[in-house]
Design goal:
388 residues, alpha/beta, 2 domains, 8 strands, 12% strand, globular
């Protein structure tokens, strides 16, 4: 009786372990758009494991050996069949996951997004306070220790239509750590379309006035950082500060800045079918229409106005800048235009383009080798500017 029960359990355990091995492998093959031979190797490994399970060879230590060999064969097929060798395998899986998520039907995308909801708490050694501004608020992440005389103003992304979420709170912790315990103020600016341009820029200016006034920080001890739409705000805020004769920040970090709302740069064409976040399927593109983020934000204004599209700005007198982008982005040329203009005006500006990376890949934090490298670069930039 016992022997029969044990035999009944084995198939169930076998199928569970097989699914645990091969479902992730097949998903990763799909995500990276693997070459056909990667699928072939994985299918042969799967079929071979099932066939051996039915043979007399399946006994004793042979079982774990077969599982191990099947996994190694499938993983080798996955690794060997990746489309690009200048990008890490986790990086390609991450980009593919972004593509799959952004191309879900709207109702499924909402459901998938809700699965990631959480209640965030500051890590040990930090506290969070809310700062009220004339028309918006900020979340101030502060170290429990001695107050630093450095601050970071973080301007979040989201195409001006989505607010602060837990990712930006985690990024605030990262910025604080890299800046030696600096207080990080994350602006929760008003959102479009309820609040049209220039509401978001005005809120950023209110945040700057608070930091240099009420909070008592020296302008040259404040970093302005942002990603995507927040990168746009970081650049346009500094343009406005310069134009109004105000003191400028110590430095700027812009990750995948959405800096050209006219979508006129060349990457809006050559990355139209490659960008995991904003790209389109080849059979859905006419080959000549620029692809980018929603361009109705300017609402009839000239989209090439520098305050709307900092790619067209005059960067004379700007502080040191660090720009980062992925080479798959339709917004890549936004960063390249900012960089070219900044260099033309003699600005200390660095643009790093990460191979195979997608829009704001830095949000992966430590999950991808490329995002780890990007944050290390941010840390080195902050340390260099703080040491000058």
């Amino acid at each position: 009786m016992t022997e029969k029960l044990n035999h009944a359990r084995v198939p169930r355990r076998f199928y569970i372990l097989t699914l645990l091995i091969f479902v992730p492998i097949f998903y990763c093959l799909l995500a990276i758009r693997a070459h056909w031979y990667g699928w072939a190797i994985a299918v042969v490994a799967f079929a071979g494991l099932v066939a051996i399970r039915r043979s007399r060879f399946w006994r004793g230590w042979h079982a774990p050996l077969c599982f191990t060999l099947a996994f190694l064969a499938a993983y080798a097929g996955l690794s060997l069949s990746r489309p690009r060798w200048d990008v890490s395998l986790p990086g390609q899986i991450g980009g593919g996951t972004v593509w799959l998520f952004t191309h879900l039907p709207a109702e499924e995308k909402v459901t998938a997004g809700m699965m990631g909801l959480s209640v965030w708490r500051p890590p040990e050694g930090y506290r969070m306070e809310t700062v009220r501004l004339p028309a918006s608020t900020m979340e101030a992440l502060m170290s429990e220790g001695e107050k630093s005389d450095w601050a970071v103003l973080q301007l979040h992304g989201g195409a001006f239509v989505s607010g602060v979420n837990d990712l930006y709170r985690m990024m605030a912790v990262r910025y604080s750590s890299l800046a030696g315990g600096a207080c990080v103020y994350t602006l929760n600016y008003r959102l479009w379309p309820q609040y049209p341009y220039p509401s978001q820029q005005n809120d950023a200016m209110d945040a700057w006035v608070y930091l240099t006034g009420t909070a008592g920080y020296a302008a040259d001890h404040i970093f302005v950082v942002g990603d995507s739409a927040g990168g746009n705000l970081a650049l346009s805020l500094t343009l406005r500060l310069r134009d109004e004769g105000r003191e400028l920040p110590a430095g700027i970090v812009a990750m995948s800045p959405w800096a050209d709302l006219s979508n006129s740069g060349p990457s809006h064409l050559y990355n139209a079918t490659k960008d995991p976040s904003f790209g389109v399927e080849p059979d859905q593109w006419d080959g000549s229409t620029p692809v980018g983020v929603d361009t109705t934000y300017p609402d009839g204004l000239n989209a090439k106005t520098p305050y709307l599209s900092p790619s067209f700005g005059d960067y004379a007198g700007f502080p040191p800048m660090l720009l980062q982008a992925g080479d798959l982005e339709v917004l890549l040329s936004d960063s390249q235009m900012v960089y070219d203009n900044a260099i033309a005006y003699g600005v200390d500006c660095t643009l790093t383009v990460y191979p195979g990376m997608f829009h704001v890949f830095q949000g992966s934090l430590d999950l991808l080798p490329e995002s780890r490298a990007a944050w290390e670069e941010v840390g080195a930039f902050l340390a260099r500017v703080m040491g000058e």
